[in-house]
Hints:
Blueprint: H1 6-16, H2 24-51, E1 60-67, E2 78-86, E3 97-101, H3 116-124, E4 127-131, H4 147-150, H5 155-172, E5 181-186, H6 188-199, E6 206-210, E7 217-219, H7 221-231, H8 240-258, H9 262-268, H10 278-297, H11 308-315, H12 323-338, H13 347-355, H14 366-377, E8 378-380, H15 396-407, H16 411-425, E9 435-440, E10 458-463, H17 481-503
Parallel strand pairs: 3-4, 3-5, 5-6, 6-9, 7-8, 9-10
Antiparallel strand pairs: 1-2, 2-4
Helix pairs in contact: 1-2, 2-10, 5-6, 7-10, 8-12, 14-16
Amino acid sequence: MGRPVPWALALLLSLLLGAEAGRNFQLLRRQVLRAREVHAMQETVSRRRLLRPAPWHAPGEGALRQPLDHFDRQEGRGFNQRFWINEEFWHHPAGPVFLYIGGDSSLSEFAVLAGHHMELAQKYGALAVALEHRFYGASINPDGLQDASLRFLSSQQALADLASFHLFVTQKYNLTQDNTWICFGGSYPGSLAAWFRLKFPHLVFGAVASSAPVRAQLDFTGYNQVVAASLSDPVVGGSAQCREAVAKAFSAVDQRLHAGRLAELEKDFRSCGPLTEPDDCGELASNLADIFMGAVQYNDEGVQGDTVAKLCSIMNDTGLGSPYQRLIAVNNGFLQSMALPCVENSHRRALAELRSTNLTLSGVGERQWYFQTCTEFGYYQTCEDTTCPFSRLLTLSAQLDLCSQVFGIGPEHVREAVTFTNEYYGADHPKASRILFVNGDIDPWHALSVLKNQSHSELAILINGTSHCANMNPSRPSDPLLLVLARQRIDYHVGDWLSLAKKAPSAL
C-alpha cells in the first residue's frame, strides 16, 4: 500500500487505539465502523498513489447552522451540522451531485472518498457531498443528549436537514436544474435516502437505498428468523447441523438459568461480575446471542474473523464436547478477538450507559439510537417464537422496559410511534419512483425492506449470500460474482436516471 500520508496515519491510530466496554453487539458495531474506516483509508491512499502526480485536494469539511426545529421557527435555537464536499471528480458546472446520507453514527471525510458511490461519482463526474445526521458525531450541541433536547431528534427533522443542506450546496456552487441530485444511504440512512426521494421529489431525482428497513416494526421477530436461516445456509458456511447445535446450546443455558445455576454460568462464560439481578441473566443471554447475530449481520466484513462459517465450524466440532461446551468456546474466541478479559453482564451498568448524557463525538450513538427506536421505529429483536435458536429471555417486554426506564416512554407510546412511522412513510410500499432498494439475503434487516419491484421505477435487488450494506463497500477482486453483478445493476440504473434527467429535466 505504501506509506500512508500523515493525516491517514493519524486517523488509523485514532481508530485503533482505546479500550471500550459494553454489550457485545455494540462492540461489534464499533469494530465494523473502525474496519470500514481503515479499509476506506487504504483504498483512498492506494487510489491516490495510482493517480500520481495528479494534484489532489482533501475534501472540504464544514458546518452548516441548522435550526433545532424546522417546524417551529419561533424555537430560535440551532446547532452546527458537519458536512464534507469532494470536488475531485466533478464535471463543472453541469455534473450531477451525489449525496451520501449519515445515520446513527459519526461520519468522516471517507464518506466522500471511498465506497461504491464514489466509484460511481468518478465515472459520472459527480460532486460528492455528505451530511452527518443531527445529534450524532460532532453534529450536536453540548446539551444534545439531555432528554429535553432529544425531542428534536427524528427522521422528519433529519429529512428537513437534508433539504436545507441541498439549498446550501445549490447556492454555494450556483447549481441549476442541470445538476441532477442522487442520494445514497445504507441501513437507517438507506431508509432516509428512500424517504428523501419520497418526501422531496423536487430536490432529489433518484435514490439508492441499501439495507433499508423502511417498515418500522415493534416486535422484530423476523430478525432472528433470518439469523437462524443464515446459520443453516451453506452458501455462507452454515448448515442445519450448526443451527441445531446453536439451539441446543442456548437451551442448555436457559435450563441452567431456570435452575439457578448462576455461579456455573458466571464461570463458564467469564462474566465480569455476579448475576445478582434477574435482568443480569437477560444481559448474559443477549450477549451470547449477539455473537451470532453480529456474525450474520456483518458476515465477511473482515472484523476479527467472526463469520458464519467460523462460528459454525466451532459449533459443529463434536471434539469440543456438548453444544453447551462449544458455545463456551465461541464466547472464549469472541473475548480473545476483542481483547476483553470478561463479559459485562450488569444490567445496571447497561442502564447507566444509556442514561449517560456525556457526549461521544465519534462512533455509534447508542443513547440517541435507542431513543429513536422508542419514538419512531421499534426494531426490537426478540426470541419468543419457536424458530429462534437463542434464549427465550430475549423478550419484547424487556426491551420496552428500557424505553420507560431510560426515557420515561411507556410501551403504548412506542406502539403508537411505530404505527405513525409506517403511516407517514408508507412502510414497505412507499409508492414513490426512482428508488433502488438493495439488500443481501443473509442480512437480517432485509426482512423490513422492499424485496420486490413495486413499479417500473421502484425496483428491488436481492443479493444472494451477502450481508448488511455489502454493496456499498469499495469493490474488491475477491467480491463474489453476485455482488459484482448487483453493483453493475446499480451502476446501470444510476446512469439511466442521469440520462433521463437530461432528456426531461423537469421530470419528477
